[in-house]
Design brief:
- This protein has 177 residues and is an alpha+beta fold.
- The protein is 39% helix and 31% strand.
- It contains 3 helices and 5 strands; from the N terminus they run H-H-E-E-E-E-E-H.
- Strands 1, 2, 3, 4 and 5 form a 5-stranded antiparallel sheet that branches.
- Strand 2 and strand 3 form a beta hairpin.
- Helix 1 runs antiparallel to helix 2.
């Protein structure tokens, strides 16, 4: 049985939202229960904190198994936007032709935060074709022209970033003083 791509995307988004919400509500209810046990004197504060850590570890491992993310990926975000507009250019003198067009810009990006403070990002964008290879470097706007011809998508951003841990930065700044 073939599942249409839109239904698959909508189902995936709904499942991820449900997992995120259920983790938040589970964490809140277990935290409230642990707090109550500490208040009643059944658990010590240290035991309560250890129990919270065990609950978090259990959720993290279950999430990694269900999502298929390796343990060295601490977070993965998908973002994007769509902008549609009408563009009209008119002249009074008759030397230029009036131009009416519908334009759009579509961007889709993915950011993964990895262990050891690494981050990688890749973003795609729509753009008008420029020359024999590549899109317009200034604008991601594309016109609805060409009687439904295929449109182009280009790599807009691709980078990796490393941020040293906060303690290392503080140590280096103290040595500079």
């Amino acid at each position: 049985m073939k599942i249409p791509r839109m239904n698959l995307a909508a189902t995936t988004a709904a499942v991820l939202a449900t997992v995120a919400l259920s983790h938040k509500s589970q964490a809140q209810s277990s935290d409230a229960l642990i707090d109550k046990l500490v208040d009643k004197g059944i658990l010590t504060l240290k035991e309560g904190n250890e129990l919270r850590d065990e609950v978090d570890k259990g959720f993290t491992s279950a999430y990694q198994i269900k999502s298929g993310m390796p343990d060295w990926v601490s977070s993965f975000k998908i973002n994007g936007d769509f902008r549609g507009r009408f563009d009209g250019i008119y002249s009074d003198g008759g030397k230029l032709f009036d131009r009416n067009r519908f334009r759009y810009r579509l961007r889709l990006g993915m950011t993964a935060v990895l262990e050891n403070d690494f981050e990688v990002r890749l973003r795609f964008t729509s753009a008008e074709r420029q020359g024999t290879f590549g899109g317009d470097p200034i604008s991601g706007n594309t016109s609805f022209t060409g009687n439904g011809s295929k449109k182009f998508v280009y790599i807009d951003q691709a980078y990796g970033r490393w941020s040293p841990p906060v303690q290392d930065r503080m140590d280096r700044s103290l040595h500079l003083l």
